[in-house]
Amino acid sequence: MQPPFDFKQLSKAWQQQPTQPLATDLRAAKRQQNYQRWQYWAELTAAGLLLIMGSSQLFGERTLLDMFAALFLFAGAISIVLTSVSLHRPLLNYSDWSSQGLLQFRLKKCRTSVCYLRYNQYSCFALLLFVITLWGLAWWQPAQVPNILLQVYSFLVLPGCAIGWWLFGRKRQQAKKQLAHLELLYTEFQESE
């Protein structure tokens, strides 16, 4: 005996119903977008400060340490600007707040988070290279590098960098899991249309 209705058709009809995002979802997405905007401008301000600090290293005595510090500050400013523009900018003016658009925004936000956490890990690695270079410079020309600078970078900054590398790695793994889940949801949403 045949059931009075087809479950496959019922399932397909149910999945194709038009849905409107909840007001709480929209508020959360707008909040995330505002946070991205704040983070974008804060990073551009930090890059500007790094450029000013790097420029100030070029005036005065111009020791090898000053030139080296200016190079690292300029490289840091350029990488911040490039990363900020490529990661945050696409989310700042996002305007499709339909159900599919909201899901797509969250997917883009999660991809951005994975890339941003990887960038932070690279920043920790760059700081490690800076400390190693400081030690090399101190070994090559001991009078150029003050001991207090070596101690601060070796005993405070370097352990903080190691902890940061580990924490960013953990958060990145969590974000990758969330990204896989969101990609699956997005694929299911696309197939249901």
UniProtKB/TrEMBL annotation:
Keywords: Membrane, Transmembrane, Transmembrane helix
Transmembrane segments: 40-59, 65-87, 122-142, 148-168
Highest taxon of the lineage: Bacteria
Protein name (database record): Uncharacterized protein
Source species of the chain: Alishewanella maricola
Lineage: Bacteria, Pseudomonadati, Pseudomonadota, Gammaproteobacteria, Alteromonadales
